[in-house]
Amino acid sequence: MIKSASLLVLLAAICIGCKTGPTDHPYRIESQYAVSDPQFARTMGSLLGPPLIGGSTTTTLINGDQIFPAMLDAIRDAKTSVNFETYIYWSGEIGSKLSKALADKAAEGVAVHVIIDSIGSDRIDGKYFKQMAAAGVQIVRYHPLAWYNLADGKKLENRTHRKLLIVDGKVGFTGGAGIADEWLGNADSPKHWRDTHYMIKGPAVAQLQAAFLDNWMETTGRVLHGDDYFPPLESTGSQLTQVFKSSPNGGSESMELMYLLSISAAQKNIRLASAYFVPDDLTIKTLLNARERGVHVQIIVPGPNIDVKIVRRASRGRWGEMLKSGIEIFEYQPTMFHVKQMIVDDRWVSIGSANLDNRSFRMNDEANVNILDEAFAAEQIKIFEDDLQNSNQITYEKWQRRPMGTKMMETFATLFGFLM
User: Fold this and answer.
1) Contact assessment for residue 177 and residue 67, using Cβ atoms and an 8 Å cutoff
2) 366 beta partners
3) Does residue 223 register a pLDDT over 70?
4) Given 195, 245, 338, 373, which residue is catalytic?
5) How many structural domains compose the chain?
């Protein structure tokens, strides 16, 4: 999330709130088939696209101690191209290391392209940009805060929240981690956030590359193609994988539709992890329908360690019906919980940049990787259960006993929750 530049964006959201709130035509989705039914994969590939393709492998990277060494190693091994897109890019230890790695590669003659959100990078020292540009890195800021954009509230609201790194068109990374020292370490103190990122190899990397090019073409008008970006990709495993991207520029709320279709297909269990969990009425209704079918629903959200307090208040104000229905909600305790993940029926996993909130569903450019694979799901369930051990469950009775002042603050926060 952001801080210093957030007021400007929030004001723009208020001005266009009637356009950015919950959709006037909510989706109507009936539960017709399970995740295990081949029809589910066909629907996800045909209705949302691109299709699920086989042959990829995904390596899980937990917290900064695993995430950043893997990303930096991949960049240092680059031979032809490096494409990088992120929301948060701040000054600090990891910002300095990444900037140097990108600059070094460009100086060697590797084609390096970088998209940085202009608001998410509001805490970066200009020397980083000068260092990279001087070495030959091609850098663009997504929807810059310039006078010619201030009158366009829609563009001001639309940020790229995607977190993508693609090296040589052969290895890709995505997940929840931004470039800031908050992600360093191993979630071992309140200063070091809990997050998960992923390294992907195989045919799905081409879809990650296409997601990056979506915004590169929008911001520069240039098309990157050829073997340096789309080389032949051999099978590295057996996972069925889909790189799913969304943007308000596409005219539909496709990220929400992906979540709703997944929840509606659940027959046994749903595990959700969301750093900013402010569900709209339709999402809550879909989760409640799953409970009526007997689906076990568990949700992990941040606890008292959260970077934007109003988000936690807006979230907690929405929990009543869900808790009463038997949906289990847990607050992560040790540090800020920034994981974004959905696991359905022990076989369907969605990972990436999207939160379950209005901003991810209707305002941001997002990218998730969807994987249909029981072995990968089992690995993610183990990590989810480990996070549960560091979380406190909030029961309906405990939620009801909140002080009146807290309830009032949550009600107020909820009014603005769909504008954040």
Assistant:
1) yes
2) 246
3) yes
4) 338
5) 1
The answer to whether residue 11 sits within a structural domain is: no
Contacts of 302 (CB under 8 A, 6+ apart): 275, 312, 331, 332, 336, 337, 338
- Per annotation, catalytic residue among 195, 280, 345, 387: 345
User: Token pair of 311, please?
Assistant: 């988000």
Active site residue 168: yes
On the question of pLDDT at 3 being above 70, the answer is no
pLDDT beyond 80 at 134: yes
Q: Is residue 2 part of a domain?
A: no
Average per-residue pLDDT for the chain: 90
Q: What is the CATH number of the domain that holds 281?
A: 3.30.870.10
Respond yes or no: is residue 127 known to be catalytic: no
> What mean pLDDT do residues 307-324 have?
94
Q: What is the pLDDT of residue 417?
A: 54
The single residue of 201, 340, 365, 373 carrying the catalytic annotation is 340
Catalytic option among 163, 192, 201, 245: 163
Which one from 105, 113, 161, 192 is the annotated catalytic residue? 161
pLDDT of residue 418: 45
| SS3 assignment for 315-356 | HHCCCHHHHHHCCEEEEECCCCECCCEEEECCCEEEEECCCC
Range of the domain at 66: 23-417
**pLDDT above 80 for 178:** yes
How open is the CA angle 294-297-302, to the nearest 5 degrees?
165
Tell whether the model's pLDDT for residue 170 goes beyond 90: yes
340 counts as catalytic: yes
